[in-house]
User: Which sequence fits this backbone?
């Protein structure tokens, strides 16, 4: 990790990153993967560093992955949940940012419902800022952990056929994944009901189809998306049963994919809605590897950003 | 602690344990008791280990006891509260278990409203699982801390007269206590209003009576239970005043007990409902020793389970 | 820090402290300030000590400042939030105190809505107790961090003209500040609408005025208070616009102050209500220094109280 091409203070989105930077994060994460396999799952790398986890939206899954990553790096974590947060009530986001800065954290992990909030924060604080999801805009660590999982199985991205299927419109992860896979040379297909497909998807350089059969045919990777029932996806189709009939990933449908296809899902899954239970737990599924890789990617990102910070400060 | 008879991955209930295993947990806890009396209340035993506290029901008392035990052992604690938990929303408990497993925790402490959930979790994860209460089924660390407190005062269990008095039906702790005391040879009497007494209590090998006077007479240990007003116990008697008149432990009633009786209560107490305030703070009360022993028992259990895990992993 | 005049177990209020003790806390905090400027912001001072943060009212700002201070001192923090706290439900505050004591924490930081609760707690537990705000009564660490900020800029308190302006009635910080500044010899003026001014303010030995112009004139320090819209201050004036017109701190109004005036605010600010945005971020503002000093003061207080505890225990 000596000749790092990483010179950024923040990780705000995949849009900013070069293919080389992406590969460097993946390499770094690979070297952290084995820490979680040790009996003593801890390295002193970030000892004495303070990481603020600032979550304006509930997200136990992502927050806990970051928190475990922070603890495995020996950092001190401070958690702010939006609901209980007097810090955030009655003051502008700028004041929240300035206040956090005054307490001198080293890194801030932020989840917010509105696109661009992490970018605003990054401009106002010296601390490194990690975007843990800003609405449907970017969620870079999710795309990186997906990429790490793909690379472990496929060894390459160039020419790889990756199909992303489901509730494209409400997904927090599609945009970052499409950007990342495009930068690394994969051929991305996006599929979903018309009512859940943003009109401008073609502009991202992806193939857009409206049947899961077409998306799965010849695919190396099938990435299923959670139907965001809680964000209004419910209005877009007659019933979850109907959704499963039209867009659910079944063993039958999977037969059209490459023989060594891998199945991914960012979680939490709606079994029997976007994915059949036996497919979710089947031999092609790498869904739990994604979770494990999530901790490794977050360790890598925390490490890389704090390294830069260390040289500056 | 070298010749440990402890070979279990999980602590799910007292039902599983032999008398020898129970005594071994108590002995181990005894050796941890003095850590909490030191100026520096910390040992490096679980340094680098990750403990997930997964509470589907609010329980600050038990959770904080575990969390203090974890910190005194130098473990890293990750807290999940049910309410705020995106991890747990919209996915099956199995997926929650598998996801947790993928993050490679060493131990999981779980509290859940339904009997058997910790057992299901334990079958799905490699991590050691500690049942911190599954409905009214088992709450083994509570029974163990009660046993430690009794042993410190009475030195033996064989032939000891222990009476458990109050809201038997809604209690989280009765079943584990009855099982444990039976295994160690104590003579258990259970007393409470008929409306708060499960019909099958005799099948546990205990004496069932319906007056507190009868329960207290000649008792070595009187264990008072919290009237679970919030779980519907309110319907079972006319008023809390009436309950106190019939089943409240008073100084007067205590006179019929052995001269060196000890008074226990798992907390939180309803003073003036199941126990008079002067009895709760009086010379026979060991209620606060129970709290202190709770930390020691949890340290012992965390230590024993992680030891097994260490040898396997 | 060898010849400490600090012999107290608790920090309950400024009312108890001598000028010498106050200056000693400020000196100690000064020596901790630089820890937050290091790349490794951590000292082993409180390693192995347990600090319970017991917040009966939400207060992310104060809680996080304490939590960061605790982590920079290597203490173990246990957080109790009031809402989710089974520990606190259905039992008296006395039982909560006794239970906490039984878990043997070294220090307890308490925020409660009612005056005197920290004092009651301090009488019942061996642990050192820090009052983090008991209603509108005392909030000593806030007054101390304000004093540290003033001393850094003005080098003295004797004869210093300090004006406190705004919602005096609902403020959590006025009383401690008035007491502290009086003990150190400053001349305090208090200003605010009559509807937000307690009738007995003169009894504190302060000058009471009812125009911001009069308060600002010749002031060395202007301390603006948050209009506590959420605590009913809203009823006391026609509109926030009207409040700003009458009592908002503007650049124009600031011209009447000393040329080297400093502007303070305990946060969170209502920009455009009690303070103009350009004043809040302007050259006289020391508001963010207050936040940074907050961490240093809390480190100092935690250190001083634990030191006493160490000698006793």
Assistant:
């Amino acid at each position: 990790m000596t000749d790092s091409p990483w010179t950024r203070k923040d990780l705000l989105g995949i849009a900013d990153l070069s293919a080389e930077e992406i590969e460097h994060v993946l390499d770094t994460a690979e070297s952290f993967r084995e820490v979680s396999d040790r009996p003593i799952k801890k390295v002193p790398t970030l000892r004495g560093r303070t990481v603020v986890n600032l979550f304006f939206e509930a997200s136990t899954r992502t927050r806990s992955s970051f928190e475990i990553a922070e603890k495995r790096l020996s950092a001190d974590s401070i958690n702010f949940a939006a609901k209980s947060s007097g810090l955030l009530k009655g003051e502008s986001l700028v004041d929240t940012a300035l206040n956090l800065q005054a307490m001198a954290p080293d890194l801030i992990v932020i989840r917010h419902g509105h696109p661009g909030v992490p970018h605003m924060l990054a401009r106002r604080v010296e601390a490194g800022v990690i975007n843990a999801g800003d609405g449907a805009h970017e969620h870079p660590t999710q795309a990186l952990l997906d990429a790490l999982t793909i690379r472990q199985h496929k060894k390459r991205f160039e020419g790889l056929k990756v199909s992303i299927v489901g509730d494209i419109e409400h997904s927090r992860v599609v945009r970052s994944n499409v950007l990342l896979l495009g930068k690394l040379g994969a051929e991305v297909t996006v599929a979903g009901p018309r009512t859940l497909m943003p009109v401008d998807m073609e502009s991202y350089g992806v193939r857009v189809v409206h049947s899961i059969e077409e998306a799965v045919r010849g695919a190396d990777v099938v990435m299923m998306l959670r139907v965001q029932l809680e964000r209004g996806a419910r209005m877009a189709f007659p019933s979850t049963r109907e959704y499963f009939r039209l867009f659910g990933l079944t063993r039958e449908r999977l037969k059209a994919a490459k023989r060594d296809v891998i199945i991914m899902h960012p979680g939490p899954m709606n079994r029997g809605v976007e994915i059949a239970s036996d497919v979710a737990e089947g031999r092609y599924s790498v869904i739990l590897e994604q979770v494990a890789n999530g901790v490794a990617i977050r360790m890598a990102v925390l490490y890389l950003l704090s390294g830069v910070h260390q040289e500056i400060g």
